[in-house]
Amino acid sequence: MLRRLAAITYDLMLLYAVLFFVTIILNIVFDPATIQNSKILYPVSLLLCCYWYFVWHWLHGRQTLGMKAWRLILVRADNSPLHWQTASIRFLLAGGSILFFGFGLFWALFDRKKLTFYDRYAGTVLNKSVSGLSSAP
Fold this sequence. Notes:
Strands 1-2 form a two-stranded antiparallel sheet. Helix content is about 60%, strand content about 5%. The longest helix is centred in the N-terminal third of the chain and has 28 residues. The protein is elongated. It is mainly alpha-helical.
C-alpha cells in the first residue's frame, strides 16, 4: 500500500507540472479573459490532459513515471495486454474514487486480494515489476 501511495504522490507532482504548462499554453493560444469566461474550455482541457497522461502511460509500457520509480506495473487480471477501454474504465473509476475521499484506494485495505476498487472493477492488477519486464508491452 505504501508503494502505491508513493507512486500516486510522485505522479500527482509530475501531473501538476504538466498541467501548469498546459495552462501556460492555453493562455498563449487563447485570451486569458476567454479562458476565465469559459466554463468548459479550461476544465475539459485539464481533464483530457490527465486522461492522456495516465492512459497513454498504461498502454505504452504499463507504467506511469511514478509507477516506474516505485517498480509497479499494471496488468490485466489474466495477464493479457491492456486495451484503451480497460485503461479508460480504470481512469474514470480512479477519478471517481478521488471525488469520494479516496474510497477506492482504501478499499484495498479490506479487499482479500488487496485490490483497489478501480482495479477490481476494471479487471486490472498492480504488481511489483521484475527488472527487465517493466518496459515490455
